[in-house]
Fold each of these.
Amino acid sequence: MAAMELLLLSNSTNYGGSMFSHAAEAFAEVSAGDRVTFVPYALADWDDYADRAAAALGAFGIEVVSAHRSGAPERAILEADVLMMGGGNTFRLLDSLYALGVIGRLSRHVREGATRYVGASAGTNVACPTIRTTNDMPICHPPSFAALGLVPFQINLHYIDPDPASTFMGETREERIDEFLEENDCQVLGLYEGSWLRVSGASAVVAGRSRLFQRAGCHTYHEGLDVSGLLHLTPAFDGGRRPVRGES
Amino acid sequence: MAAMELLLLSNSTNYGGSMFSHAAEAFAEVSAGDRVTFVPYALADWDDYADRAAAALGAFGIEVVSAHRSGAPERAILEADVLMMGGGNTFRLLDSLYALGVIGRLSRHVREGATRYVGASAGTNVACPTIRTTNDMPICHPPSFAALGLVPFQINLHYIDPDPASTFMGETREERIDEFLEENDCQVLGLYEGSWLRVSGASAVVAGRSRLFQRAGCHTYHEGLDVSGLLHLTPAFDGGRRPVRGES
């Protein structure tokens, strides 16, 4: 059995940059000259998205085929050497993976090292045990929030610090993650834009800036972070208090 | 049958203000001297939240009891003259309402005018047909996204314009609502912070600034907006394209 190989990006595009260019070397390392199968289902316009991803990765010499152009997209996904799960809306992407019936088998292929997995944004969210730390709007209702579970902790993408000058009264990202921890006992790795997590076998290392949240508190890491120890976690979901019906 | 009376606030607290104070007159009009039953389940600390809400409304002379202090909270909710659904996490609030089994009966009581309904933030989200336009993190999984359906359109709270100076690459609020419209054919009323929707029988009027989104485009209203016509809409949910399995 080969080692699991994951490249989980916070975001597809850095401000002022072109798609995937900030992570070009990491893409080259993971794809290792092999063709990449792209999954465009997190956005509505699959053709346009697949063309843009193919052009972006083509600029680094990486060949791309899109699963949606196959007569059997589930087979294209399950037979991929390297799978790239594109970003967009996480609820729509997970619902699409359930519609194709690939969740369990794709997870096994990746964990067994048969398929290398690259995700960006929504594509990173669905690599987690659940999509419960997505920032996306719940525009549709997948049958479950359970996702691929390639790592046993949650990741929050596009992580952003509170703006001290803001007059906005909605929750900050940190407050939202604290609410997640009230309901679930599972560490959350916040990846600032431009950062990614690289997993190779038993090693899991962040490139760039990150923030790790757990019930005991959180800590910011500026220079990368080895989170290999988190690969042995057992997350616990649910457990928040709910009102109970009385004797009415 | 009495007229339906709703007060649906974008946010509980304006920047620099105290809780509910920006809408004190509207609270007084809807509660009309009657006791308000508060629902604290969108936050984790029910006692603290209920005490803060009671103090805030008490300052305008409004008496508050909290449903969570009743031996039969579902009965307290269903027998309320005026119900105030507090803000917090929308997924947790809806899950709590399902746990209490009150969704259908509460909706009927409010639509028949037996219970006047006040919501803020998450409490406004659950007044919509679904919670599909919430900004909140899906920290838990309610059995359905279907909510009270007191109005036949969606509302987006804490609505905020894109910041032209931002370098953040995550979706803007407008982009998220556009994704909602790709999957659902249902108008979305964006309420900027400080705004609210007041429904009284066949009249539905926004106080403050709002933005109305539909598939044909969107428009910003600066000075209030009469949306009574929207009360006759028939929303259509789902319908976005999904990949289909091939002949594999």
Amino acid sequence: MLIEFLMETIQYNLPQSRIPLAWYNIAADLPKPMAPPLHPGTLKPIGPDDLAPLFPMGLIMQEVSTEREIEIPGEVRQLYAQWRPSPLFRARRLEKALDTPAHIYYKYEGVSPAGSHKLNTAVAQVYYNKKEGTKHISTETGAGQWGSAVAMACAFFGLDCKVYMVRVSYDQKPYRRALMEAFGASVTASPSNETESGRAILKAHPDSNGSLGIAISEAVEIAAMDPHTKYALGSVLNHVLLHQTVIGLEAIEQMELADDDPDVIIACAGGGSNFAGLAMPYLGRKIKGQSKARVIAVEPAACPSMTKGKFVYDFGDTGHLTPLVKMHTLGSTFVPPGIHAGGLRYHGMAPLVSHVLDLGLAEATTVQQLDAFAAGIQFARAEGIIPAPEANHAVAEAIAEAVRAKEEGKQRTILFSLSGHGHFDMQSYIAYQAGKLENYEYPEEEIAMALAGLPAVG
Amino acid sequence: MLIEFLMETIQYNLPQSRIPLAWYNIAADLPKPMAPPLHPGTLKPIGPDDLAPLFPMGLIMQEVSTEREIEIPGEVRQLYAQWRPSPLFRARRLEKALDTPAHIYYKYEGVSPAGSHKLNTAVAQVYYNKKEGTKHISTETGAGQWGSAVAMACAFFGLDCKVYMVRVSYDQKPYRRALMEAFGASVTASPSNETESGRAILKAHPDSNGSLGIAISEAVEIAAMDPHTKYALGSVLNHVLLHQTVIGLEAIEQMELADDDPDVIIACAGGGSNFAGLAMPYLGRKIKGQSKARVIAVEPAACPSMTKGKFVYDFGDTGHLTPLVKMHTLGSTFVPPGIHAGGLRYHGMAPLVSHVLDLGLAEATTVQQLDAFAAGIQFARAEGIIPAPEANHAVAEAIAEAVRAKEEGKQRTILFSLSGHGHFDMQSYIAYQAGKLENYEYPEEEIAMALAGLPAVG
């Protein structure tokens, strides 16, 4: 007879039946509504019809909805079951390595076959497009996580997929490109000669490394020109953030399984969807007085939209094809330094995330590139999983919080989002370990210039 | 009130408490014992002491044990909980794509942070080494899966790790190397100038691509020379196969959850540990009359040890430093063609797997390289997961079996091992999609030469 050794629980997992039935829409619970997006010509609030050339109506209605619960279609839940509910880990080995009294939990989205949280919204977006007859999806990708997710979702639903990939990633990440191509997507380096936006940039800067803002312009442009092509965005918009709330909804149940309650909730934020996914369901509870957790969005020091940007109306893209949205921004013409967390290189922050920061429901902090990678290596050696460079920012802040807990001699429960693995980002770890990465100072002058060019609105 | 859409179950998962308490040792149930390993000098059966320079006694005793259940130490089970029990998927989307009446299940070992089944034995081996005072582990890696697993296990237990990586992989797979280095391992291309075995090969073939057989010689040589250094092997040996039986033990429970029973069990086999991991617990039931499943080991057409080799005594390595073992072999001097499933490029097959094939308990088949990759792409587009090139061999056979079921109009339950993901093998997919891969004919002449050089034993 074998006696069972008393084990510590590592994963708090839910069965397939606990995949949420509905996404959570915090708009229903906000103490003050968000500022509306404006038409860049008229400066009047835009309506659903203004967005119709780019998105299917199912998504547009979610974009403007104030319903608290938005039902997840059965087909989307069925696809979620390929990887959801995602695991919640207690980082016991990391806690021991840090010798901290803090409890550290992480919600791990890297189990998605695309390797990150991005697939949560990609399958939803492609589903609504398919339902309304869209044949082709155009999109952009920086780090490659979003492009991989859209390529995969299009393969699942049988739609064509066109990805504009930021030039520097296109060159640095051939494996990412190969993954998208394995799923049948067509991948083009951006800026490209295929669009007016791309050609304009190439004319001024023939060697442009590209940026997310430029790639967005290209993908939007080709969608606007063809009625069978729609555009898919991987972050920033309300409906994208909405789809990610499955992360936080599951985490709330899993933390109950663990019989623990987070004092601090941490997630990295580039466009804001990963942060919103974990945070919004908790912020809904906070608004209702059911949670006192500090909620922290972490951004790179090199691209500090939340901590150094202005909360004003700006364009979502460099080519100024999008509506004007009120958000924390560094200026839509600002091209962030070439940090290795490509998913965090965006000049703005989701209007919804900006709004909850402005309301004081959440706070923001920055992490330097070298600290992020050092944290990632420390995490990997304890927990095994090698995080994506973006996720390293959350890891660094979680470790810093656990160290503070030790210094103060106080227990504290930390929950963070490990939004993806770094399997396709190993060139960044190679560069880090070879001592080739650097920290970036706040790019003050460029940001001042970009902010000076902001449209005078609101 | 939201109504739940009737979902099909995709994953059949077990809680942490169902991680097996013991590994299953089929030696206890074999109708005929295996031929013993022989000392290459005396040609007499070797004893535990002969292996002591290379392995800790805890592993040596497992190597020769005939106990049916060997308890998994609590610390090893605790580490297993970082990723185990691994999921069992029903490949419903693939079934629909194939329009087959077959039920297809896969046991997915890619959830291990090392990305494959290899971590199951790596943590066990490093645990026993740590317990007996080993300071350094030396090993070899071909595809990189084994090296990654050992590097990770050494980081978990605080041991130094030295990996001899087959030259062609070292050059082709910088991400794999980076992963091992992120976990603190020292990685050297093999053949190297660090060992006599390596120098001998380099003298004869200065541009040698290396092979698993050569890299094993190098790793064994440095372990034999230093009392604080032990050697770890990722396949072939009984104790390695034993550790992998957690795969099959969990799968048996999970198939019960699914209320289904496999008619066909499929796994790829290079050294044999992945195959043994899934198959041995089922073969134990087959011996007792509790299962009638066909059990199929799949090998590459370019390195067909089971289907074209001889079942005779041979060396495990190219440098002839190991004992002689009775196995299916293509000859220890045979260097397999440079197929992209590096983990299947081994001249021999585990003695235990060879023995169950010889007893007629299992059968073997081959898959060509292009068919393997085509199957991998088809699988990925349906299921999302992009398989390791090795695992593609099992995918191809599972698909072929499902297609036969359709042609015969018969239901059939297929269970296969998806031993790892292909995230670190995307250069192979790039080459495949660019049309640069080829099939290999059975390398008849080279194998005849290598077999002619076999030692005359038994």
